[in-house]
Amino acid sequence: MALKAPGILIFMLSVVLSLAVLFSRFFGASVPYLTGDTTQFYAMSGAYLVLLLGCVMRGL
Fold first, then answer.
1. What is the DSSP string of 4-40?
2. Does residue 18 contact residue 44 with C-beta atoms inside 8 Å?
3. Residue 60 has pLDDT above 80, yes or no
């Protein structure tokens, strides 16, 4: 299985999503839909899933 580097759009999407969760969690920023611990966990998991799919799938 050959991995490739993700595209810049996929990479930036995962970075922005993970930074939103981190700012919401540790710095007290009020980000809509990221208020509870469970939603923050799912959002961070989604950011890594997007990055994983960008590395595995061709054409993303």
1. -PPPHHHHHHHHHHHHHHHHHHHS----TT--SHHHH
2. yes
3. no
Tell me if 47 sits within 8 A of 18, measured CB to CB. yes
| Domain parsing of the chain, residue ranges | 8-56
d(CA 40, CA 46): 10
- Sequence length of the chain is 60
CA 38 to chain centre: 15
pTM of the model: 0.81
What whole-number distance in Å separates Cα of residue 5 and Cα of residue 33?
30
